[in-house]
Write a structure and sequence with these properties.
There is one protein chain. By secondary structure, the chain is mainly alpha-helical. Helix content is 64%, strand content 7%. The chain is built from 11 helices and 3 strands; from the N terminus they run αβββαααααααααα. A hairpin with a 5-residue loop joins strand 1 and strand 2. The longest helix has 22 residues. It is elongated, with a radius of gyration of 18 Å. It starts with a helix and ends with a helix.
């Protein structure tokens, strides 16, 4: 699988914002679609965002690592609203999100490991967009994909409420699946 392809596609589909904004679903988001309300930031991400950015680090107490996670997250979000994040930081968060999607797919979709790379990229994009829990409700689509019935999988993708919500993204992803036939 080509991580650069996935990264480029997600930037096209999600855009990139170096300051927090409210996405169309009403969630506080930053970078390339990182939902700060449902996904938040891991402890490691928070320490990295503060510790590796000298300007941000100067705005935090020297013992910031002793703060509890919720307090640190709220302080970091306040800081990001004023000062934003760098593009490198946005890419770090995106890499972590792609990795998490891939791990979720490996655990939940039994045929994922043996799937064509193009299909893996589509699934990561879908997982990133809707989350693994919602993606797993696409039972017929996933079954068709796993069975190599790509035309039927693509048609099924386009019948969903998700496709009506994300329009162009769903059409692009369905075309990529259809092209596997």
């Amino acid at each position: 699988m080509n991580y650069n392809n996935v990264t480029e596609q997600l930037i096209i589909d999600e855009g990139i914002s170096l300051k927090p904004y409210y996405c169309t679903a009403g969630f506080l988001t930053i970078g390339v679609g990182r939902n700060l309300e449902t996904n938040g930031l891991s402890w490691g991400e928070m320490v990295t965002l503060i510790g590796q950015n000298p300007e941000r680090k100067a705005r935090f107490p020297k013992d910031f690592e002793t703060l509890d996670g919720e307090t640190l997250l709220m302080a970091l979000i306040r800081d990001m609203k004023i000062n934003g994040i760098t593009e490198d930081e946005a890419m770090m968060l995106l890499r972590n999100d792609i990795y998490q999607c891939e791990e979720d797919l490996k655990l939940r979709v039994k045929w994922y490991a043996g799937a064509p790379d193009e299909l893996k990229e589509v699934l990561i994009n879908m997982c990133f967009n809707m989350g693994i829990k919602t993606l797993m409700t696409f039972k017929n689509t996933l079954w068709y994909m796993g069975a190599g019935e790509y035309e039927r999988a693509a048609a099924n993708m386009l019948k969903s409420r998700w496709a009506r919500q994300v329009k162009g993204r769903a059409k692009r992803l369905a075309e990529r699946v259809r092209a596997l036939s």
